Amino acid sequence: MSTTIPIGPFHPVLEEPEYITLEVDGETVLGADIDLGRNHRGMELLAEEKTYDQDIFLVERICGICSASHSWAASLAVEDIVGCEVPARARYLRTIVHELERLHSHMLWVGLAGHIIGYWTVFMWGWKYREPILDALEMITGNRQHYAWYRPGGVRRDVPDEIWPKILKILDEFDTKVDLLTGAILDDPVILGRLKGVGILTTEDAVAYGALGPTARGSGVDIDVRRDEPYGAYSEVDWNVIVQDGCDCLAVAVVRLLEMKEAVKIIKQCIEKLPGGPIDAGIRDVPRGEGIGHIEAPRGETFHFIRSNGTNMPERHKMRAPTFNNIPTFRPRVKGETISDALLCFAVIDPCYSCTERMTVLDPSGKMLLSPKDLLRLSHEKTEQIRRNS
Amino acid sequence: MGATGWGFKKSLWVFHLNAGACNNCDIEVLDCLTPRFDVERFGIKLVGSVKHADVLLVSGSVPRKVVPDMIETWEQAPKPCAVVALGSCGCTGGIFRDGYNFAGPVDKHIPVDAYIPGCPPRPEAIIGGIVKLIGTL
Q1: Which residues, 6+ apart, have CB-to-CB distance to B55 below 8 Å?
Q2: B52 to chain A nearest CA, in Å?
């Protein structure tokens, strides 16, 4: 007889307050169902009622962690309609902020993954190392998150040269911390025991589900918009796309850890090569036409489509965030796993420590069998068991 | 200070409810708990169930689909329970005010004791807001 576990809809931190139902038989997960829509804010219609400049502030607020990605993609779409060339300095500044965002996003995920498998130290350390990156973002853009940094045609303000040494110092320190964390995670037999071979998403499944970003690259799918269709300054700096063939949770974790190293490399090169000159192409009018902008956000490809009717507001603004594609991959990942690994399988597509707090096991009549705490306890117990046996 | 004030004097346990937020307020709440700000040293901590909470922290612009869940969460909370509307969206609806799916702000559905504006409010602002809230209870 199967039992259902509802997860959600409220989580302390999550991209979207989603509602997930797990079907379980004893310890084994048989299937999963996902119900979205609690975060539907009418974004696309709102975008059509605002001017292009105001739209940037709106699309930033699609997701707090990817705010640079969305505003850049929307700016690219407008620039695609206008057909203008963005000044080199603006392209480099955009790239720097975007990669800083990737750093803080990946570090956030590492922390949350640590929390889920019962490693509080990883959680606290990860978030501690993330703070200087937010400081760097604040130095450049003026805000810790929601930077309002991108605008169609360029960036919103110039940066004085004297902040770069400070940012390089932050990056150097961050780089050593990433090494430390990577070593600590990959050398730990217990963490390996928890992540290796858990939550398999085969290459075929990743392609079939249209997985994006680290989720796809952890399953051996070699896609990255930054390389496949270069934008910003990515074609002018030296970096590698990280692909792992493991197809399990460990592979995704490794992709994220190594990508942080690559991001540090990209930022350092951008700061070194940062050209002078204007920071804005000065777009005045947006002609009639259609444009797309797609970029590699920390979680995968973010896509924006804008149709202009020649006024100062878009006629249609379609946006698609990577998590939309990645959420369904939870289904093949979780099938056949145990309940204690279900949390991890879900979190691996995106940071969502919150699910752990909100999962409840109910029997068909609605009686609670396991509380959220019990589920987290199960997960922690499994880690403990592996630790004892190793 | 009445009995209520005594109960709220220290070790506030917070339940955080994301009612259609963009996730930024939520991250800043977690930031408060991690080493740089570390409010846990004052006994303030996030709890997994609203039934353990003294404070209900609501962020987000409250889309229609969330309203029944949010009210139910509020009803399940043991009283007295202070409600804090977090961020511009929680306080007024912010940029989503004109959206067709906007059913908030928070104080339209549940009584709010404190408002912490900002998009997102900095961790310092969140801590400051909670401290002011303790002073008024």
Answers
A1: B12, B13, B14, B15, B81, B82, B83, B84, B130, B133
A2: 12
